Amino acid sequence: DAKTTQPTSMDCAEGRAANLPCNHSTISGNEYVYWYRQIHSQGPQYIIHGLKNNETNEMASLIITEDRKSSTLILPHATLRDTAVYYCIVRVALAYNNDMRFGAGTRLTVKP
Amino acid sequence: DTAVSQTPKYLVTQMGNDKSIKCEQNLGHDTMYWYKQDSKKFLKIMFSYNNKELIINETVPNRFSPKSPDKAHLNLHINSLELGDSAVYFCASGGQGGNIQYFGAGTRLSVL
């Protein structure tokens, strides 16, 4: 079962920042927060992951609260191609016997 | 070059038939996975192989049998196909203990 809670859907205006929240109040000390997205009819795509520090890459930023019970994925300038289902997953890293447990995710719609 | 490739992309077959889906990764990863995404869009792990050894085997009917001839390949064979097997099947691979998983484009299986 997924250990995260996300809103079912969100809208965002093109060019604006999209902030996607995720609650993971039962996260363990050795679990990372991963974000993936699935664009319609494609396979899931890795976005970013982090343990406790904020992370940034070319796709997005990940902000994790100090108590690690929630996080926010930020797409700084959303485009129409960012319309997708975004999944927040908590998982122990470096564990090949620990798969990605996908929940229902947040359906983000970027509007012109 | 496609990192994780699955064939075929679409598979339409009759109930009772046996079919296989092939997956190959050129990322040099040790771990490969099969996921199933049903009509409600939930992604669920089916199997995981690490260095050709079965690691994860979720509650999947024994009509489903994964085969890993080498680290770069994980094929899925399905016997006696049923209507409920209709879904999109995704292959994935992960390096360094599956830290980040890379997914194929999916195989859409329709059982008539």
Percent of residues of chain B in beta strands? over 45%
Structural class of chain B, by secondary structure, is mainly beta
Number of DSSP helices of chain A?
Answer: 0
> Biggest interface, and residues per chain?
A-B, 22 and 28 residues
**How many helical stretches of chain B?**
0
The first-to-last residue Cα distance of chain B is 34 Å
Straight-line N-to-C gap of chain A: 35 Å
Number of strands of chain A: 9
* Low-confidence spans of chain A: none
Q: Strand share of the residues of chain A?
A: over 45%
Helix content range of chain B: under 10%
What secondary-structure arrangement, pairings included, does this model have?
The complex is a heterodimer of chains A (112) and B (112).
Chain A: E1 9-13, E2 18-23, E3 31-38, E4 45-50, E5 55-56, E6 61-64, E7 70-75, E8 84-92, E9 106-111
Parallel strand pairs in A: 1-9
Antiparallel strand pairs in A: 2-7, 3-4, 3-8, 5-6, 6-7, 8-9
Chain B: E1 4-7, E2 10-13, E3 19-25, E4 31-37, E5 43-50, E6 53-57, E7 64-70, E8 73-78, E9 87-95, E10 100-103, E11 107-111
Parallel strand pairs in B: 2-11
Antiparallel strand pairs in B: 1-3, 3-8, 4-5, 4-9, 5-6, 7-8, 9-10, 9-11
Can you tell me about this structure?
The complex is a heterodimer of chains A (112) and B (112). Helices cover 0% and strands 46% of the residues of chain A. With 112 residues, chain A is mainly beta. In chain A, the strands form 2 sheets. Chain A has a 5-stranded mixed sheet, with no helix packed on it. Chain A has a 4-stranded antiparallel sheet with strand order 2-7-6-5, with no helix packed on it. Chain A is globular and about 40 Å long. The N and C termini of chain A lie far apart (35 Å). Chain B is mainly beta and 112 residues long. In chain B, 0% of the residues lie in helices and 59% in strands. Chain B contains no helices and 11 strands. In chain B, the strands form 2 sheets. In chain B, strands 2, 4, 5, 6, 9, 10 and 11 form a 7-stranded mixed sheet that branches. In chain B, strand 5 (43-50) and strand 6 form a beta hairpin. Chain B is globular. The relative contact order of chain B is 0.34. The model of chain B has no long low-confidence stretch (mean pLDDT 90). The chains are: A mainly beta (112), B mainly beta (112). Chain A binds chain B through residues 34, 38, 41-46, 49, 85, 87, 93-102, 104, and chain B through 4, 30-31, 33, 35, 41-45, 48, 50, 55-56, 90, 92, 94, 96-106.
